[in-house]
Amino acid sequence: MDRTQKEKELAGLKEKMANARQIIITDHTGINVADMTILRRKLRNARSEMRISKNTLLRLAVKDTGMSSLAEHFNGPTSIIFGYDDPSVPAKIIYDSIKDNEKPRFKAIFYDGRMYGADSLKTFAELPPREVVLATLIGTVQAPISQFIMVLEAATREFVGTLDAVAKSKE
C-alpha cells in the first residue's frame, strides 16, 4: 500500500467514524472467508459496515478526536464495525456470531461519546430495537390521554342518558 492509498484509506476511515453512531471493535482471527462474508452481509443489511484496516491507520484516524480512547484497542488483527442506525442491531449480530462460532473476539464498543468494555456487548445486544422503544414510549404517553377521553365520554353519555330519562318521564 503506497502513501496515496494510505491517505485515501485514512480519509475514508475518518469519514466513516464521523458518520457512525456506534463503533464496535473486534479481533477477526480465525474467521474463514465464508463466515466473514455471511457476517458482512448481515451487517450490511442492518445499515452497518465491517472494515479491516491497519492498526496504525486506525490510530491516526482517531487521533485528536473525541474517539481517541479507541486507540488502546487497535492491536492485533482488528476489524471495526460502523453502525449507522440502531445501536442494538449490529451488537446483536456480533453477539450471535460469537455465540455460534466463538468468533470474532469482541474488544470494545464506542457509543454516544463513551467507551464500553468487553462486558457490555450482551447489554447492547439485548436492547430492544429502536422502533419497539419508540412504540412503547408512544403507548405510555398515549394511555393516560386515552383513559381521560374515555372518562369524559362516559360522563357525557351518562348526562345524555339522564336527560333522556327525565324527558321520557315528563311525557
Structure annotation, total helices:
6
Structural class: alpha+beta
The largest sheet, given as strand count, sense and whether it forms a barrel, is: 5 strands, antiparallel
Our count of domains comes out at 2
Q: How are the strands of the largest sheet arranged?
A: 2-3-1-4-5
Descriptive key words:
171 residues, 2 domains, single chain, elongated, Alpha-Beta Plaits, alpha+beta, 5-stranded antiparallel sheet
Topology:
Layout: H1 3-19, E1 22-27, H2 33-45, E2 48-52, H3 55-62, E3 79-83, H4 88-101, E4 105-111, E5 114-116, H5 121-125, H6 130-170
Antiparallel strand pairs: 1-3, 1-4, 2-3, 4-5
Helix pairs in contact: 1-3
Description of the molecule:
The chain has helices at 3-19, 33-45, 55-62, 88-101, 121-125, 130-170, and strands spanning 22-27, 48-52, 79-83, 105-111, 114-116. A 5-stranded antiparallel β-sheet has the order 2-3-1-4-5. Helix 1 packs across helix 3. The model has no long low-confidence stretch (mean pLDDT 84). With 171 residues, it is an alpha+beta fold. It folds into 2 domains: 3-127, Alpha-Beta Plaits, CATH 3.30.70.1730; 128-171. It is built from 6 helices and 5 strands, in the order H-E-H-E-H-E-H-E-E-H-H.
Question: What's the quick description here?
Answer:
The protein is α+β, with helices and mostly antiparallel strands.
